[in-house]
Write a structure and sequence with these properties.
The protein contains 17 helices and 12 strands. It has 476 residues and is an alpha+beta fold. The protein has 3 domains: 1-26 and 267-325 and 351-412, no CATH class; 31-169, Alpha Horseshoe (Serine Threonine Protein Phosphatase 5, Tetratricopeptide repeat), CATH 1.25.40.10; 253-265 and 327-348 and 415-476, Immunoglobulins (Immunoglobulin-like, Sandwich), CATH 2.60.40.10. It is elongated, with a radius of gyration of 26 Å. It starts with a helix and ends in a 14-residue tail after the last strand.
Amino acid sequence: MIMRKNGWFKYVLVLTALTILGGCATYYQKTLKYQQFIYSGELEKAKKFLDKNEVKTGKKDRILYLMNQGWVNWMIDKNTESNKYLEEADLMIEDYRKKFGLELATLVSNPSIKPYKPEDFEKVMVNYLKALNYLNMNEYDEALVEARRINLKLQEINDQYKDHKNRYDNDAFAHVMMGLIYDANREYNDAFIAYRNAYNIYKNDYAENFGVQTPEQLKKDILRTAYLNRFGEELEFYEKEFGMKYEPKQHTGGELIFIWHNGFGPVKAEWGINFVKTSSGGGVIVFHNEELGISFPFFIGDKPDEEKSAFAQLNFIRVAFPKYVERKPVYTAASVTADGNEYPLQVAEDINAIAFKTLYDRMLREMANSLLRLATKKAMEYAVRQENQDAGAALGILNALTEKADTRNWQTLPYEIRYVRIPLDTGNQTVRLKTFAGSRSEEQNFQFNIQKGKTYFYTFQSLETQPPQGGYGTFE
């Protein structure tokens, strides 16, 4: 009888292990073929790959499919189609908080079985990409709506967090975009307010949290719109603030807002975080991680004696949590040359830095639940072992195999965003983008037909990026 029982458990364990281990690859590794199409600039193939694999991704990855399709279609100038996908993704983000059906399941399993919930910065980048689509279609009012929605959405997101709010609770570049659009519509009062709001966020939040200083272009636009609005006191204040003197210039042509997306943001891998039980008493157990300097207490005094005993046996817990792995861009700087003048592109949004900081903030918010989930699994395992050693061993192996981090993320967002304003004469004009990678540089020309008094928006994405570190392989 015992032999038959052991054989049955071994059969179940082998089946379980094969099933789960088949899904142990990270999301990046699973989608490497799609990434290779992107890196090589084969965007139509990337689009077809997404369509072909839509059924395989399933409902739990639907939002990632939509965001990826939104990005690919934006890249190939199918702006209406891109916004169709992004609008559906936006609706899913709005609906997500109403759906809690799988929360109980993840208490005893892992977060990767749930439909993917985008990180907070990914949610607002949906609106940013929609704004770019509208700008490409010269629908400036619609673009302005999407830029406004970025900070409204961030406010709604952070209002849900009682503790450990995101350091990313306002988006400076969204205010820059609002200012640029108002400016293009000659609504200089609203443009000045948006630019000023952007400056305050760069000064008070971005510099400390993400290492991004106020772009020089933003300073120039604040001074110019203060002058155009005849805000004498404000102009004088910001001249002193920036150490710059505004000199009005006559310009009879148009202007180009050149936006550069450099490389790609990080991808997720798994991180094992170890916690040791440091104290137990008064119905409370405390788990501590020395490296991070964080502790989490749990009250178990109201649990049945069997559960108390099971929880008391826990001395060490390893929690699986996602971590970001950086993909450094190939290019470290860029400038735009027009009419013999060179305009450096200045960092306005460091998505890589935002990603790392917001994931850490989320870890602090969610670690208590992750510990409780794992502690519950371990306590169940201990209780089962008291009844049946083989069943307890089987549950222990199953728990170990199912303790996985969710490594899904939107992998086509840029590493950073830079921009600059360029005055151009009327008629056909050539603009040259020069990108720098150490001592090496590359150039690319763009043609624009400029009309007097009109502002044009153009966004260019550099696909070149270095592979992520940590055993992810190369892009060949």
